[in-house]
Specification:
The structure holds two protein chains of two kinds. Chain A is mostly helical. Chain A has one helix spanning 5-35. Chain A has one helix and no strands. The N and C termini of chain A lie far apart (53 Å). Helices cover 77% and strands 0% of the residues of chain B. In chain B, helix 3 (26-54) crosses helix 11 (202-216) and helix 7 (132-151) crosses helix 15. By secondary structure, chain B is mainly α. Chain B has 20 helices and no strands. The chains are: A mainly alpha, B mainly alpha. The A-B interface holds A 1-4, 6-8, 10-11, 13-15, 17-19, 21-22, 25-26, 28-29, 32 and B 26, 29, 33, 185-186, 188-189, 191-194, 235, 238-239, 241-242, 245-246, 248-249, 252, 405-406.
């Protein structure tokens, strides 16, 4: 049995929002630190 | 990294998976994400702004807003202290499991082993005997909390900053192992598939908001205290987003570890994922040991490292729960931090012994249910009302924007003033009525009153007592 489509959608949504978002804000923080 | 370390704790790897399991798996994730973005992150920005602006622990910070609001600050520091009382018990379990990992003592029946380890009486009505391994763990953990707070949070913060990646890497290793087990896909399917019919259950929504508050450390005075130590030019908004997303990301990952093993256990017993007969605070103490035992190589080594990692995950959260109370006592009565820390740790140790008894698991579950679901959510509501309506909220927004790259708009004001209070009030009102009609887990009323209502009321009354004592001193 594979994952239902709605579960895959939740997986992608959660991953993109949480880990993508975290990567974005960490990048901003490092850039700010570098420019200081 | 230190900021992430302060937020990520057992709330992510221990509490999130079982709350998610109890509230329908995928059915819980939608309210969880809604709560994170509509209340968790905006409140995190709010608390960071207050702490950074006031440069004080919550009681003094709220006093700066208005003298009559000091009680709200005390309320916010008393709640995490009560949470710390049972949080350290979970850490004591981890401490024992760290030692048990050496010979994988839980064997093939982790659920039976855990109940024997606690000397579980199966009900809160029979007290049972005190578990010696748990008491030993409690002594070690409270001693660690004392030493860390006594020596100074800043120095230990650097060590924690280095140890943060280790638990995450181990969690990834266990997740990979879990996902390769037979039946894991069933567990993951339960974890991720949204069940829209559960979205009408107000208790699921309340649990989601409570979990976000518990895990992020908002509505507990922790973030106000933490922000008061931040440098003047620290980026408030960016810090708030990093902490919130790292915290939620860890919870999301822990969900995969636990639910893959839940799927495996269900498949091996030939039952459905919801019919396993396990759940509540014990869930992760059954699933993680099972996953560790099933590692193909060096299971003992990884097991020990994993529980060490859990302890490092938990210890910074544990002392951050006691720190606001210590700072509050130090700030108001000028009690030295060492003395205040000693007093709180000794009181904490003796009260937490209740949770080390044979019925401790059940009392822990009851206190956690009421303190998190009602206490934290109520503080979140009061915080929004005081800071949104009794103070010029735009000043706090401007303060955050002054140091932040990302500028917050007026939408944030509307969220704090209208949306969050309305949602939290509605959830609380409906859930209180629901809990009166259907007592939690069908427990007798004296159990609910003793374990749920009494701590909530005691904290509320104590916050006023703490505020009034100062007035008496001033008058004399």
């Amino acid at each position: 049995m594979g994952l239902p489509l709605s579960a895959i959608a939740m997986l992608i949504f959660g991953s993109v929002i949480l880990y993508g978002g975290l990567a974005y804000f960490l990048y901003k923080a490092f850039r700010r630190e570098k420019n200081r | 990294m230190a900021a992430i370390g302060s937020a990520v704790g057992l709330g992510n790897v221990w509490r999130f998976p079982y709350v998610c399991y109890e509230n329908g798996g995928g059915a819980f994730l939608i309210p969880y994400f809604v709560a994170l973005f509509t209340a968790g992150i905006p409140l995190m920005i709010l608390e960071f702004s207050v702490g950074h602006w006031a440069r004080n622990a919550p009681p003094k910070a709220f006093k700066k807003i208005g003298r009559k609001w000091e009680w709200a600050g005390w309320w916010a520091v008393l709640v995490p202290f009560v949470i710390a009382l049972y949080y350290v018990v979970v850490m004591a379990w981890c401490f024992s499991y760290m030692i048990y990992s050496l010979d994988l003592r839980w064997g093939s029946q982790a659920d039976v082993f855990f109940k024997n380890f606690l000397g579980d009486t199966g009900t809160p009505e029979v007290f049972g005997s005190i578990s010696i391994p748990v008491v030993l763990g409690l002594i070690v953990i409270w001693l660690c909390v004392f030493i860390i707070l006594y020596k100074g949070v800043h120095r230990i913060g650097k060590i924690v900053a280095i140890t943060v990646p280790i638990p995450t890497i181990l969690l990834i290793i266990l997740t990979i192992r879990g996902l390769t087990l037979p039946g894991a896909i069933e567990g993951i399917s339960y974890y991720l598939t949204p069940n829209f019919s559960r979205l009408t259950d107000v208790n699921v929504w309340l649990a989601a908001y409570a979990q976000v508050f518990f895990s992020l450390g908002v509505a507990q005075g922790i973030m106000i205290t933490y922000a008061s130590f931040l440098k003047k030019k620290s980026d408030i908004t960016n810090n708030a987003f990093i902490i919130s997303l790292a915290d939620a990301g860890t919870s999301f990952l822990a969900g995969f570890t636990v639910f893959s093993v839940v799927g495996y256990l269900a498949a091996s017993q030939g039952v459905g994922v919801t019919e396993l007969g396990i759940g509540g605070p014990t869930l992760t103490f059954i699933t993680y040991p099972t996953a560790i035992s099933l590692l193909p190589v060096a299971a003992s080594f990884f097991g020990m490292i994993f529980y060490v990692a859990l302890l490092t995950f938990g210890i910074d959260s544990a002392f951050s729960m006691v720190e606001p109370m210590v700072s509050g006592l130090h700030g108001k009565w000028k009690i030295t931090k060492a003395k205040a820390t000693g007093i709180m740790c000794i009181i904490g140790f003796f009260i937490s012994l209740v949770f080390a008894s044979g019925s401790g698991l059940h009392w822990l579950d009851i206190v956690d249910h009421f303190i998190a679901n009602f206490g934290l959510v109520m503080i979140g509501l009061v915080e929004c009302l005081i800071l949104g309506w009794m103070y010029t909220l735009s000043k706090l927004r401007e303060h955050a924007n002054e140091t932040s790259e990302i500028q917050i708009g007026r939408w944030w004001d509307y969220l704090i003033k209208y949306v969050i209070p309305f949602v939290l009030f509605l959830l609380l009102a409906i859930a209180i009525i629901d809990n009166i009609i259907n007592p939690y887990l069908g427990y007798p009323w004296w159990v609910i009153v003793l374990g749920g209502v009494t701590p909530c009321l005691a904290i509320f009354l104590l916050s006023f007592v703490f505020m009034k004592i100062k007035k008496h001193t001033e008058a004399t």
